[in-house]
Amino acid sequence: MLAATFKAVNCSRSVHNWQKVLPIRRFSTEPFQPIPGRVPKKVDNAEEAVSYVKSGMRVYIHGCAATPIVLVDALAKYGKKANLRDVNIIHIHTEGPGTYAREEYKDHFRSNSLFIGSNMREAVNSGRADFTPIFLSEIPLLFRRNIVSLDVALITVSPPDQHGFCSMGTSVDCTRAALQKADYVVAQVNKFMPRTFGDSSIHMSHFDVMLEADLDLPKIHTGTPSKEELMIGQLIADNLVEDGATLQMGIGSIPDVVLSKLTNHKDLGVHSEMFSDGVVPLVELGCINNSLKNVHQGKIVGSFVFGTRRLYDFINDNPAVAMHDAQFVNNPVVISRNPRVTAINSCIEIDLTGQVVSDSIGTKMYSGVGGQVDFLRGATIGYDGLGKPILAMPSSTNKGVSKIVPFLKEGGGVVTTRAHVHYVVTEFGIAYLFGKTLRQRAYELIKIAHPDHREELEKAAFERLKVMPSP
């Protein structure tokens, strides 16, 4: 299939090789701009595709549903076989086994997660891998400002169209910036990758190597929502989401439950760093029509998606969905231009003054900063003054330990400061903290804590604040 699309030659985007191929004409790193006279090399072997990688290089990996699993696994095998050393792997949440981060590869590769997925938690918490705290909106700046230089990028794209354009499909996020700055780009071409609109197109002349590897995209696995999550979702849908709202939601049971409870709402819009299957039925019912949005009116805007085949089929060749760079999607000023921005995010722990932990459980790293603060802030500074920044969590862990605490666990990272927090929702109600004093915040949070913990929390609040919590 690819052979009919291009004639294979071997050349690199690195400066010294480009001087040989195009000694006079300058080339553009803009993915929408074809590079005249340049075609990538087609290979049939994944290890050959990654064989450009040398010791000491920095390699970017496309994330989430777009993880190029065939290339990633081949890189691990090739690295061990070639005895590569000190190869730094840069990525956000990826899917697949993350072979390169296993114990037996520690002398060859070191991962640096800009957002930690489940396949990297053990390595990060064992010291074999790194984590960089950073807002999703600012990850592209790392590459564009050359704070983090990239030697190689491994990505997944759709097959090229008749004009030679491929699509990054499910994940534009920070990958567009990585492609613009990487010296060498290897593309895993997958017929199951949907073609999306927005900033997702890239001409194949920007690739150095293309490998055809068709396999189903990774799918999200969500369990049945708990009773507490169902109650939280209902509270948010009934009390905080208004008709005409522009929604942002993350991954997880609570956002999915909220969406399932919005079937009687109208004129909803979506501007979200990511979205999943829950938006599809609301579009089909006409509840989501994006008609009142000010940024890309009439379109769902995201930077990546993660869901099931139903979602991937929905976004495929759908002009009503625009996938854009995270530096744009997650920009609080851009977010604030939309009406009634309602940002729904989850957290792990919150203390009685409103400090929120979202990326760790004590010293154990769990996820990352992501776009939580980007969207909470965007909702807060909304031009219409009607935004709702929402944090939601069950009041207790599965073991019955309160998630509302007098003091954060030692080592817990404050992702969202107490000055950012407005609405906090548990199954026991909604606490509104904006403009509240410390004793008032403690009072509101204790009211939505599990009843089994309220007396203890009240005593702890008095010990900490030297005054009883009160409205």
TrEMBL record:
It comes from the Eukaryota. Pfam families: AcetylCoA_hyd_C (PF13336), AcetylCoA_hydro (PF02550). Keywords: Transferase. GO terms for biological process: acetate metabolic process. GO terms for molecular function: acetate CoA-transferase activity. Residues 307-461 form the Acetyl-CoA hydrolase/transferase C-terminal domain. GO terms for cellular component: mitochondrion. Residues 41-212 form the Acetyl-CoA hydrolase/transferase N-terminal domain. Gene3D superfamilies: 4-hydroxybutyrate coenzyme like domains (3.30.750.70), Acetyl-CoA hydrolase/transferase C-terminal domain (3.40.1080.20), Glutaconate Coenzyme A-transferase (3.40.1080.10). InterPro entries: AcetylCoA_hyd_C, AcetylCoA_hyd_C_sf, ActCoA_hydro, ActCoA_hydro_N, NagB/RpiA_transferase-like. Belongs to the acetyl-CoA hydrolase/transferase family. PANTHER family: ACETYL-COA HYDROLASE (PTHR21432:SF20), ACETYL-COA HYDROLASE-RELATED (PTHR21432). This is Uncharacterized protein. It comes from Helobdella robusta (Californian leech).
